[in-house]
Write a structure and sequence with these properties.
Elements: H1 2-5, E1 34-36, E2 39-40, H2 58-64, E3 69-73, E4 80-84, E5 92-93, E6 99-103, H3 120-131, E7 164-168, E8 171-175, H4 197-203, H5 205-210, E9 218-224, E10 228-233, E11 250-256, H6 259-267, E12 273-274, H7 281-291, E13 294-308, H8 321-329, H9 333-340, H10 370-380, E14 386-391, H11 396-409, E15 414-419, H12 421-430, E16 436-442, H13 448-456, H14 461-464, H15 472-482, H16 487-504, E17 507-519, E18 523-524, E19 540-541
Parallel strand pairs: 1-11, 2-11, 14-15, 14-16
Antiparallel strand pairs: 3-4, 5-6, 6-8, 7-8, 9-10, 10-11, 12-17, 13-16, 13-17, 18-19
Helix pairs in contact: 8-10, 9-11, 13-15, 13-16, 15-16
Amino acid sequence: MLIALALVLAACGSSSSSSSSSSSTSSQPKAGGTYNFPLEGGDPVGIAPNTYQESIGYNVVLQIFEGLMKYQVAADGVTMNTVPDLTTGPPKVSANAKVFTFTIRQGVYFQPPVNTEVTAADFVASWNAVANPKNWVTGTPAYILEPIMGTDETGAAKNGLTGVKAIGKWTLQVTLKYPFAEFPASLGHPIMAVWPVAYAMKEGLKTFDQKPIGTGPYILQNWVHNQVINLTKNPHWWNASATNGPFVDNIHMPIFMDPSTEWLAYQAGNIDITQVPTGQVQSSMNMAAQKGWVAKKWPNLGIYFIGINQKDPVLGGAKNLPLRQALSYSVDRNAVINTVSEGVPLVPNGVVPVGIPGSNLSSLPYPYDPAKATAIVKGLGKVPTLKLWYNTGANHDKILAPVQAGWKAVGINVTMTGYDWGTYLTKCAQGTQDQLYRLGWLADYPSMDDFLYPLFQSGTSGANTFTFYSNPTVDKLLNQARGTIDQTQRLQIYAQAEKLILADAPVIPLYFYREYYINDKRVLGQYIDPMGSLNMNQVWVAQ
């Protein structure tokens, strides 16, 4: 859920240039060395399955934990597919898309000091532990669990997940409350990873979160808050090989509060890959060309949007749709993308990003048309001054300035106010004072469902997008899509729902994210997929 809101902290309009990937080399990977990977945006909230929630810690969690499924980029370099990880193959699915049966891979062991083999019972314990609200922190994306029998509408299972059973040592059966054909796609999310629950409870969950244990290629060595996270190679990783690694002995992850400090650290040779600050894309491209660095724009399954509180008497509901239309018509996305963000993000065609199957079925009903916006505003009479909120510390004021100017040009006055991240989330969740606000959403799983159901289904829109949007027809279509096994039909139904959502305008899509990174050729195998993840077991030091 808030995984995506964290791109919020990543100044996604950050930057970018184009060049070949550093992963392309004819040399054979070699073992040894240290990989220096920055964590941008501050200290992660948590790095255990029950505490993880945002993008800052994503690449930490992925090196430590694994689940039944994982995400793998297709040959086109953009589309993300769901493939087996700790299961031997795709699940058996009942005809009604409610019962899923998985065969657990044998020979997978928890990291030291636990060292026990993972069985179906471990998945039962892991999922029950994350479904227990007593184990949550603020922002835990529990909606991932909500389809499973035994949960309430929030994903909590106070009396246990009655739909999750080990029906054999290596066989896990999951029963859902309703049909959900894309359920396996959600199982690559970190909250669904397997972890040694009995050990964690014995140590205490707070202690476990400071040094969590999973089954992945790297083990947490230490976490010095607001300074650094260090990982070391797991010598007993089940998937280790001469071609799959893990290769580097250590991963050093210094924590940066802002892109400027990170960019300076890269230039000083202290980290091996970096984003660059807003406004420095072209200059960094020139520097990369001079120094022989690799500069590349990487596709990203995420959207930056302006939310509109549907509970607000001035902006919300059907009666205020004309004002929302005027706000949408007067947003010049190209001004934001090309001027502020130097051509890094992509112009959106809806709320589902490029790279998600079915995203090509969308189109914006209210594209930039200031003449239409002006006509609507004149017809409305006097429009009161509106309020736009943003979270501070990630250049969102600069990103939103052209939007504010576009509104002013058509006769809509909007004031902007920034809040620190924690205060911002709390105030938006209340839904009492906010009118307009900015948010980002990254894919928790690569599916149209993940950009439509948690953001716009009436029971979840208040918690995830803070729009409090409600449309009974949209709810019905989203439920129908979840129960449709045929993918072509399912995508068409999701597209119908998205069309209605865009027409109602509870959000204004501003851009689809792309990430711009610069890295030195000293380190190879650095491939950032559209989920924003980097399989560090494949990274190796060439020099």
